[in-house]
Amino acid sequence: MIDVITTVTAMKAYVKAIKQRGETICLVPTMGYLHAGHLDLMREGKSLADHLIISIFVNPTQFGPNEDLGKYPRDFDRDKRLSEGVGVECIFYPDASEMYPKGYSTYVNVEGITGKLCGIARPTHFRGVTTIVAKLFNIIEPDVSVFGEKDYQQLVVIKRMVGDLNMKVKIIAHPTVREEDGLAMSSRNKFLSPDQRKSALVLSHALIKAKGLVKHGEYDAAKIRQMAIDMISSTPEAVMDYVEIIHPDTLECIESIDSKAVMALAVKVGNTRLIDNMVLK
């Protein structure tokens, strides 16, 4: 039977008992409405430690004032059933007042890399992400934590925070999980109409085409980027937020693909903002 814990005090007591036995913990943080990508993270996490704990918390501090916090999909009973099926032993399921009690005023901010890519359109987003992840790490004290590569910038930001603050947790990156047609799995995909769902494929199609261009000798980032922009602009209901080719660690835009590079993009399809990325070389 899976344990569901809703308070910080009870979660700390649960963790203390595990630590006293000298056993290890893997944490997979989520916002719930789980899909196959989440479950893959959990399966990997299960193999990395003695105990697998997940968190389900729709974190209000990472949503901007005009974003979809109120509409973000939630189905705890379904999430609990799916989690149990992949071997999760405990779900930390606090409410917002538990994580941000009255008078809360402390935030974690990673400079520099959070001001790029998604951070341009969502200037407060990563402060919310790093704050809640730091809190989860302090409460649950995981030895290892698994994050998906689909949220590439988030992964880089979390790794930087862990390194800069000398946190003991090891961060494991898990490859993006896709639908059969290539669309990156996301809890937000449910908001797409059938026609929008077809248009959303422009993200993965542009990335695959870019990878093919590099494979055949095109290393000019501007030309590859323009190809993706043209594809997006000709797709119904698709509006580009950004398309960039970046250094995998610094997230700085690069002009020539001389070594490993990542193409990252964000596209709004209808009212749904989608992100995706792919290593080009």
Describe the structure.
With 281 residues, the protein is an alpha/beta fold. It has two domains: 3-174, Rossmann fold; 187-279, Pantoate--beta-alanine Ligase, Chain: A,domain 2 (2-Layer Sandwich). It contains ten helices and nine strands. A six-stranded parallel β-sheet has the order 1-4-3-2-5-6, with helices on both faces. The protein has a three-stranded antiparallel β-sheet with strand order 7-8-9. The relative contact order is 0.13.
Secondary-structure blueprint of this entry?
Blueprint: E1 3-5, H1 8-20, E2 25-30, H2 36-46, E3 51-56, H3 76-85, E4 90-92, H4 96-99, H5 118-121, H6 125-140, E5 144-148, H7 152-164, E6 170-174, H8 194-199, H9 202-215, H10 221-233, E7 238-246, E8 262-269, E9 272-279
Helix pairs in contact: 6-7, 9-10
